[in-house]
Amino acid sequence: MSIKAVIFDLDGTLLDTLGDLTGAVNAALRRRGYPLLTEEDVRQRLGNGVRRLIARSLPEGADDGLIDACLADFQAHYDAHLVERTHPYAGIPTVIEGMTRRGVRMAVLSNKYHAATCRLVAHYFPGQMAVTLGERPGVPRKPDPTSTREILRLLDAAPEEVLYVGDSDVDMQTARSAGVTAVGALWGFRSRESLVAAGAEHLVEAPEELITLLDRLQLDEACRAFEARGFTCTFCATAAQAADYLTTRCAGKSVAFGGSVTLDALGVYDALRDKADVHWHWKGDAGITSGDVYLTSANAVSAMGEIVNIDGTCNRVAGSLYGFDACYVVCGVNKLTPDLTSAMRRARTIAAPLNARRLGKRTPCAVDGKCHDCRSPERICRAMAVLMAPPARMRHYEIVLIGEELGY
Question: Of 9, 73, 169, 264, which one is the catalytic site residue?
Fold first, then answer.
């Protein structure tokens, strides 16, 4: 199964909240004359909700009345100061953006009380999380799987289609109890040893490695799916490797290019000018509608083996379907999405607005980056083609996936 969604823990995973949490704990302790804690003290007490944090911070034997009173002081201080020292870990904004471009939905599940969880997510990740859940009355805390399963229902995702990313043994236990894939974040509050002991299936040293992990899982799934549908699938780790591969495959042939920022970045046209009969209207050549090879990209490809393209003039879509002996669809990993629905969403909400802006079109999407299904005379979304198997009259149809981000 492909990865459709990622659930994140909050404290120690997305956000470094240790400074503000320590300030709030110490505000409650200071009021009663108890010894104050360092950030490292608080770090070791985190993971099971704020009430447990307060209980662990008080002298041994504190009764429920004292814990509740200190908890109220903690929450009052924390609510007033929760974004003073808190900040996303370096690399997290890039990860969120990368997952958005790939059509992967995201959620947050925290043992922090629900109101504070929602405020923090709205402040640091506005509109980017499909679901946000914190600790709520009557709902068991992590590692109980109840809230994780609730998120799966809301995201319409099966456990095997979800990664759970967290920094604590509680998070790993939560993932395992819900049947989702447990990914340990080593930049957070717990050690490698504790994460492995709690059941981490993957470990990532830095946030950016989450994108690498996601791409690796999706690429493996996608190649198997494309080949099962009758396509050939080739993986090139870098753009340079892909350019060399395509140049070798196309040398000595008549080659037509479909308009593509990806192909332009690869430089394949220039590499082939002395080696093949090349035609590309972007380079001032007359286009051709039949020949040996058609080179193009896609607005999105799904890990289930489908290719999605949106076009205005429709010449690019037409060439990918008919008239050539072979077609190569070249895509960076940013074009890879979990399924057909997310591939179509990506084409309309990411690729089309960026292309409209690049072309200077006066469309609503070029202004705000959102699809309005507009009736503008300059609309570039006039055809959407979904290719589910190689066209019957093409001898060879190949997907070339590149392990770098390219194009729109």
Answer: 9
